Structure prediction request, 1193 residues.
Amino acid sequence: MTDAVEPAPQSAPQPTRFQRFARSDLLWSYLRSPVAIVSSIVATVLILAAILAPWLAPYTPFDPATLNLMDGFTPPDSTSFAGHYFLLGADNQGRDMLSTIMYGSRLSLFVGFSATVLAAGLGVGLGLIAGYLGGFVDAAIMRIADIQLSFPAILIALLIFGIARGLIPPAQQQNAAVWVLIIAIGLANWAQFARTVRGATLVERRREYVAAARIMGVRPISILFRHVLPNVLGPVLVIATIGLALAIIEEATLSYLGVGVPPTQPSLGTLIRTGQQFMFSGEWWIVLFPAVALVLLALSVNLLGDWLRDALNPKLRR
Amino acid sequence: MTETPLLSVRDLVVEFPRRGETFRAVDGISFDIAPGEILGVVGESGAGKSMTGAAIIGLIEPPGRITRGEIHLAGSRIDNLPEAKRERLRGKRIGMVFQDPLTSLNPLFTIGRQLTETIRRHLPLTPAEARQRAVDLLTEAGIPRAGERLDSYPHQFSGGMRQRVVIALAIAGEPELVIADEPTSALDVSVQAQIIAVLKRLCTSHGAAVLLISHDMGVIAETAARVVVMHHGRIVETGSVGDIIKRPREPYTVRLIEAIPSIRRLHGAPATAPAGVPDAAPLVEVRGLSRDFVLTRRGPLQRLLGRKEEVLHAVKDVSFTVARGTTFGLVGESGSGKSTCAWTMVGLLRPTAGTVLLSGHDIWDGREGERYRRRRVQMIFQDPYASLNPRWRVGDIIAEPMRALKLAEGRSETEDRVAELLRRVRLDPAALRRFPHEFSGGQRQRIAIARALSSRPEFIVCDEPTSALDVSVQAQVLDLMQELQREFGLTYLLISHNLAVVRQMADHVGVMHRGALVEERPVDALFDDPKHEYTQMLLAAVPDISRVA
Amino acid sequence: MVAFIARRLGQSVLVMLAVALIAFLIFRFVGDPVASMLGQDANQGDIAELRDRLGLNDPFYLQFYHFVLDALRGDFGISYRLQQPVSDLILSRLPATIELAVTSAVIALVFGIVLGIYTALRRRSVETAFIMTVSLIGVSLPTFLIGIGLIYLFAVELQVLPSFGRGQVVDLGWWRTGFLTESGLKSLILPAITLSLFQLTLIMRLVRAEMLEVLRTDYIRFARARGLARRVIHFRHALRNTLVPVITIAGLQLGSVIAFAIITETVFQWPGVGSLFVNSVQAVDVPVMAAYLVFVALVFVVINLIVDILYWVVNPRLRDSASGGR
Prediction:
């Protein structure tokens, strides 16, 4: 009883939440990674441009009243016969490419985000249940996930899309298209989340702090949400970031294949699909700029996810 | 000494760049090894002993590197040789044995293939001759029917057998020096003694000197003649094993030696007498406890076909009692069932048969028993890194039992009690707002103790509470546990593979072997006069510093 | 060995039955088969007769039983859109898809493994940094964009390779091959590269990650301590241990080449099964969708089976646990 109380590791005053963040490994690794910095800036700019499209875009490309066929095929950085200036040119119908791209990314991002949220919610929930309950429930959920994971997501999404097409009356298909797309992509991507969360849950569940909680009689549901969930969120964040890039690509692919959103409401994939036919006749800008936007968006988000995975994985840190 | 030393290390510095700064793992050490000599290197974790071994054999993982000093092998400098030439030294002139025999061998190749490829790399032999030499080496290393076992894969051997294979591999090229880095730390006590004997015998008969790296002074004392004590990358003291243990000069060595528990009573006086009357009414009574595990599950169809399930009897009919206010030590090797026993006693694992009574209440008797148990039983775990949730603040971790059992009213009362508990385990109450990763292993174990105390339990099960800690930290944690026991009248079940720790802490000791309790007696009686032959074998096998003449 | 394969076969049959059930549910409940076959202006009598003939009034399990029996005979009904037997449609387009998929799979496997090993062994070199960056960009690029880019470069600008179709084909019995003519081979180049690129980067990254993991293990460190030559350690010890887990994932990746062909075939108007499927989805041609699902599942199950057996052959630990006890 006579020995002095051991001081806490640092005698500095209590760090605030911000100070802790500033001192964290994550920020350190971010500031040391030019790839992460550049891609986060690119992603932010693109996402802001998409969200603020109604206010920032120079034209409203989908309002037939403002369209002028005289503007059709105007090359980039030039003024049309009708006296309109187009930074990135205009397409065959005289729509401003910059504005269509902004609105198109808006739709692509909306579908991508919603589908990822759906996939993450479903996957995390089922993964936690499978990992914690084990036994038959676990076997059933994971067997479905395994089978689904062995098929490419695009195939699953196409199937779900086709089924939905057959079930929804034709009159409502136009309105439902975006939601069908979100559900198709979301259902196609849940398994990756479920598998990762289940794996992490199995690891966490065997940790001794869970045993300690069980000894003191903490209820399983409480252990699941208060102990296990916070510890599996790291990998979930990584998959969600990479999953967002995947969902954007999948949406573009489905739209490119002609089974996505209707042409009246084009996403980036639809723009590329319609633009491709003009590639042979020399109007390269109609396909190039949407493609560049799509690549930048998918690449920057993917690079961010890749960096995040390395930064959160201490094994790779060297 | 007039003779040139076999190995001479001069002013060696090994550095690791880390986050912009450099970390010195080895900080200017110098020592010699004579031909055929066994030199021990002892130190706690982070002392730089493994890095010294890696530097000598030239296997420092980048970005770490030697930044100063020289290493001479039989008079010629080797640390500045190009990689191609260093490669030629490894196995041929310097061999190495690693800690974990389970991961040292390539799982996809037979041990025969791994042996012959090593032999033929270093010696000009035909495949048939190399095979014969492999058989000889394995036989020498004590592997029975070596000829037949040559075509077995590593997973078909036990841990101890694999380490024999590893030693045979290290000696296969007839090196002049073998570096053994914690060669027995992953093994059970009884196997440990055999492996040390094999290492010593093989190196002596092949004329190789040994650099034996270990955190365990006992292992060094049994094997080496001379020892180097390292601390924070520096050499603190060098001397004969007897001198270092009996007449340590440096303050660090003195503290280190004092902290090492022994299976003998070195200081005469027995452990402080228990607070309660020795034959007070037992607090815990374990009667006929058994626990089985089904190893291979059979589907309904297979059971119909009469295929039997393979069952492991992890705990077989174990009975003992623990008196209030005393410590019951449960010792045994890995797989003896001691941890399974503990898990059934804290409510984590339902026994297959038998009862666990706490003041006469059956803790496995439905909700009633569970409610009774939850308020009175707590547990301290082995791994101080896994036993605290890394995302929780220390305050919340310690308060968890109070909240789960609704023992405190309101925020401020909870916080006051957490602060009080932190003071009790000698930590600054300001720690409650910090996260576990900001603390060292020993401090974390104190936090775990504070958590166990926070529900004011009567009975605490301690499962290897100090196995993950360095000896000096172990001594502090054990002292704290004893103080708290006196203060709160706690009853402990102490589970450990470390016989010395149990001798210092327990009043009563039970020895488990293959699921059964083979011997159970008061501590001094059991250690001074073991009756069961397994207990005798165990005690004889422990490398202990008290054995040094 | 026999028991092991028997168990795996049993599991495969179960998976196929599950997929068949899904295909059957799609076939039976998506859209109205009778309306699709007869058109809008059929009379009640015809409808009732057709329902009866198709067995749509039978109990559910009997209908499924007949569906499975028909499927085993290769009978998936008549395409709504093209009014031809589905099995004929798939069979006539199968050679195109298989030739494309196999070529891509070989490219992906060879380059993926070689580059993966190279980048793992030369971890800090400039080439590795370059390859890794390009591969990351490759994973982030949608397959169809790669295809469009290649078409633009080689067909529009350089005009050295065709932008669509299979070129001239030669009939070998029912199998039409593009391997035997110059134009057929030329037409194969761009689609095969497009299709292989994604799998190539995946396999490369997988091999690299696995190899780096293996190079960090104790037994590699011990192999170095034993004085084995660097070449032996890398190409005998590390490579073999790397390839064991790689077999599983690489095998499955190759399976997905068939499914990914959907996109490539659309971009290059390749007359394969994939473009047939896309057109069927657009037109809600349910029998073709159901049959395609069963076809792809079959490919996956067969590949899975082969992978399992291979894995069992190369991994001694698995061999022991399978022969003893189980």
Remarks:
- The beta strands of chain A are 78-79, 85-86.
